[in-house]
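=== RUN LOG ===
request id: a7f3
mode: sequence -> structure
chains: 1
length: 293
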Amino acid sequence: MSINQPAISVADVLTAFQGSIKLNLKIMRDYYGLVSLEVMPDRFSQLSLTINGKPSTIHLPSDDIVGASAFVDRSWDPAKPKLFAKVAQSCPEGIVLVDVGANVGLFSRQCLSLISNIAATFCYEPHPGNFELLTRNISGVPNANLFRKGLSNGSGNLVFYEDPNNVGNYSLNAAAMPATYRESVVEMLDASSQEILWLSYDKPVFYKSDTQGHDELIATSLSEQFWRRVKVGVFELWRIGGKTYDRNRFVSILDSFPYKVFQSKPTVNVGSSSVIEYLSGTDGAFDDLVLWR
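=== RESULT ===
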């Protein structure tokens, strides 16, 4: 080897490590039974959170998507929590955060890290494994209400579909699944019964829904009174079949927000008709719609 051979830099090593993390996690998960990663976020991370005066670790799933990305990036889809934090600056009276399809709590945790005036947090996650990590990541936060249940237009048990490689892709709609998936049964709450809890605080509501094809049905199960209270919201909209919801009611909800942008085109304000046109497709694509007033 030549003595003039360039040295390998720390940046080179980190780049190689980040490139292999998904494979390493898969090996540790599939061959060694790794369930989750416990990480202490640094103070610059949106996942950093102090609970009861002490920095709190975060528990990440060992999947190929959510856990791997959050571990490497030290955040998860950070743009939306930042927007929520910006809007919260105009709400000195405090806000109520509602997280439907909370998964392991990364979105709520980032909002709790960035927003100081959250009066109460409501998280709904029906999958037992995700809920266990959600509890570890949010438990101890004042007025954090965690439910191991999903939301729908009625209460009861429903079939739940699970992507084995992506804990963020669990759904009540089989059309959201890859070719190979798992099935279980989860308990649902009537969304209209829960809005009573949210509205009882008499504060602006910040609403996020991420249910892989069920968002529209949940949204149209909530009252006009509730939607008038929502200051900013997010729907994850999937172009898949098998969805049943009141389309006119959903358009009415969309029309009540003057600002609507798809995350893929954050500078383009769209009309309700454009949203419905997007939803008419069945190619399996999805995009987040952010709305605010």
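=== NOTES ===
Residues 10-32 form the longest helix (23 residues).
The CA atoms of residues 135 and 215 lie 23 Å apart.
=== END ===
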